Amino acid sequence: MAKVAMLGAGFIGDFYTFSLHGLRSRDSVGIIYSRDEARGKAFAKKHGIPRWTTSMKDAVNDPDTDLVVVALPNNLHLEAVKMA
Predict the structure, then answer these.
(1) What are the angstrom distances between the C-alpha of 23 and each of 68, 71, 80, 82?
(2) What's the average model confidence in pLDDT over 28-34?
(3) How many Å apart are CA 1 and CA 70, to the nearest integer?
(4) Predicted TM-score of the model (pTM)
(5) Which of 33, 58, 67, 84 is the most core-located residue (most Cβ within 10 A)?
C-alpha cells in the first residue's frame, strides 16, 4: 500500500484523490499540501486525509510518503518535481 503526498487541493487534486481512494483503495493520500491553510484543512477533512500542510517541502519529505502526486498549477510543476 502506497502512502501518497498530494500536492494541490484544487480540482485536479480532488480528482486524483477520489481516484486513488475509490479505484485504487490499496493506496491512500496520507498528507495534502495546499498553499492556502483553510483550503488544505477542508480538503483533508473532505477526503479523510490525516494530515495537511502549507509547506511543500514538509509534504514531500514526510517520512510516511512513498510517492508524490503533483496536482498543482503548471507554473509550480518544476519546483515540485525538483523537490520530490
Answers:
(1) 18, 18, 25, 28
(2) 96
(3) 19
(4) 0.93
(5) 33
